[in-house]
């Protein structure tokens, strides 16, 4: 609203850009499901995952469809880790590998565990916006260094920053 702001804009040399919803479409999807134990089939694992994730506010929870036929008790959301509850007398947990007691969180996957045993590993992706690379190139041409900010896992951020040529 002031002309001084336009004059100051010419001095901008760094742009801080949020990842989710700005550089990505923000429509997460499950791109791969790996069954880790033969006791539960893929449909059951997806149903349990959806039932648990309906309680989560994490953006990746939207990648799972809620199945109303799965009733959970004693649901607890642990921010930044995952969700746990009771299903038909079984302890069910979805979240990071460490939260599900399946190992290291380095692989960026979401895990489902039942009664302390890992049952499924879900790979979730958020599609890069079609115009994101061009926008980053345009900023660089203007002498503006783009830098991505995110609360997401470092490995996911590294992968996207490499695709887009940003820090």
Architecture overview:
By secondary structure, the chain is α+β, with helices and mostly antiparallel strands. The chain has 5 helices and 8 strands; from the N terminus they run H-E-H-E-H-E-E-E-E-E-H-E-H. The strands form 2 sheets. Strands 2-7-6-5-4-3 form a 6-stranded antiparallel sheet, with helices on one face. Strands 1-8 form a two-stranded parallel sheet. The longest helix is centred in the first third of the chain and has 12 residues. The chain is elongated, with a radius of gyration of 20 Å. The relative contact order is 0.20.
Main attributes of the structure:
167 residues, alpha+beta, two-stranded parallel sheet
Residue share in helices?
25-40%
What would the principal axes of the Cα set say about the shape?
elongated
What's the main sheet like? 6 strands, antiparallel
**Mean pLDDT value:** 88
User: C-alpha Rg, in Å?
Assistant: 20 Å
Percentage of residues in DSSP E strands: 25-35%
